[in-house]
Amino acid sequence: MHPNATHNVPLYRVMENGQEYFKYNDDGEPSNTAGKPMAEILNILDVYNVAIVATRYFGGIKLGAGGLIRNYAKTAKLAVNEAEITEYVEKSIFILDYDYEYTSEMEAFLNGNSQKFGIEILEKNYSNRVTMKISANDEIEKELNSLQKIIVIKM
Questions:
Q1: Helices (H), the chain
Q2: pLDDT (tens digit, 9 = 90+) per residue, 114-133?
Q3: Which strand (E) or helix (H) includes residue 154?
Q4: Could you provide one GO biological process annotation from this protein's UniProt record (predicted)?
Q5: Domains of the chain by range and CATH?
Q6: Separation CA 123–CA 121 (nearest Å)
């Protein structure tokens, strides 16, 4: 944050394990004229897992409460619009263990469901059996457990 800034208004909104953590500060601006308008923009846009710091330099013109509210809200909206927003999907790690004879069946299942479950193959080990470590959405667990001749361990 720039040392010559008059105000650095911080805000964060995080969702973790179904719990929302939301905090903002006006950093010396009149009460509810800086952090709150930015927070309202995040609520309207339904954006989580974000932090914003709006920096303001006093330029000699007093904006008044209405001007501050409009400008801080506009700053938050511009920041969110410029950001690369991606949907967060919680994944789990699964260990798959199976005989070599099921390799083509297993690979067909994983390739065919890659997008549906967000599958990412992290490791493959070939010894007496095939052991694979994958990252995927939790919804895959039921499907994996329905497959025959495979051991599934959710980490």
A1: 35-45, 64-82, 103-112, 114-117, 140-146
A2: 999 999 999 999 999 999 99
A3: strand 150-154
A4: regulation of translational initiation
A5: 7-82 (3.30.230.30), 91-154 (3.30.70.120)
A6: 6
